[in-house]
Amino acid sequence: MDVQALVAWNLRRLRVQRGLSQEALAVDAEIDRTYVSRLERGLENPTVAVLERIALAVGADVQEFFVRPRDGEEPPPTLPKGRKARR
Q1: Alpha carbon of 56 to those of 17, 31, 37, 74: distances in Å?
Q2: Eight-class DSSP state of 2
Q3: Is residue 80 classed as helix, strand or coil in its secondary structure?
Q4: What angle do helix axes 22-29 and 48-58 make, rounded to 10 degrees?
Q5: What is the pLDDT along the chain (87 residues), one digit of tens a residue?
Q6: Given 11, 16, 59, 75, which residue has the most CB atoms within 10 angstroms?
Q7: Domain limits of the chain?
Q8: How far apart are CA 40 and CA 15, in angstroms?
Q9: CATH 1.10.260.40, domain 3-65, yes or no
Q10: pTM beyond cutoff 0.90
């Protein structure tokens, strides 16, 4: 797994673990939602400054973007689609 794919994997893992949508993460990190999507698909190379803002938004250290998955580890799941039901 190359570094760009590793960052993409861990970005999605951290976002999903925290139950954040791409939109919520983008708002918290002050970046565009489509940029979050492109990062998670490995289509963009984030700067260190962007990684730092994302790390703050998910409550993680920047180094967590470089953690290698265990052999055979499944990709992070997607969050349920659509808006949450009103109460």
Answers
A1: 15, 13, 18, 25
A2: -
A3: coil
A4: 110
A5: 899 999 999 999 999 999 999 999 999 999 999 999 999 999 999 999 999 999 999 999 999 999 998 887 877 777 776 655 444
A6: 11
A7: 3-65
A8: 10
A9: yes
A10: no
